[in-house]
Write a structure and sequence with these properties.
By secondary structure, the protein is mostly helical. The chain contains six helices and no strands.
Length: 146
């Protein structure tokens, strides 16, 4: 429960830094919270940082696009702070620590894991955004008269 609250706060604080309007800050926090819940759930099931990060980012992306349409705001004000709790900071720290201790194999392993997690987050947000834009474009075109 504490982790969920900290994920909520961990999304609101960057929202304040990025000058998100006060009326949207609560929604920003919920996005980070949902992403974290998804991440933790799938990390427990799969034991994969990359897959859990990807799924957490997809949920943040879907949430951000949906809330942005409801509140008539840009989706990025919800997605960027929403992914902050998912960023693999401990893995990056471990990478640098292994380099400093001259444990190069462990450093390379953690470095690849860190970069994979970061890439999975970016791809998850990208995928959710692309699906929303595609469906919006298809709705504008209307039914295909065949």
């Amino acid at each position: 429960m504490v982790e969920i609250f900290l994920a909520f706060l961990g999304s609101i604080c960057p929202g304040v830094i990025y000058n998100v309007e006060k009326r949207n800050l609560m929604w920003v926090g919920f996005g980070g919270m949902l992403g974290w819940i998804t991440y933790r759930t799938f990390n427990e099931i799969t034991k994969s940082l990359v897959l859990a990060s990807f799924l957490g980012a997809v949920i943040v992306g879907i949430y951000s696009e949906s809330v942005a349409r409801l509140l008539k705001a840009p989706a990025t004000i919800f997605s960027v702070p929403g992914i902050i709790p998912l960023v693999p900071g401990i893995a990056a720290y471990s990478t640098i620590q292994h380099v400093a201790e001259n444990q190069l194999y462990e450093a390379a392993s953690k470095g690849i894991e860190t970069m994979s997690g970061a890439g999975a987050i970016a791809f998850g947000i990208l995928l959710a955004s692309a699906v929303f834009r595609l469906t919006k474009k298809l709705k504008k075109r209307g039914p295909n008269p065949s």
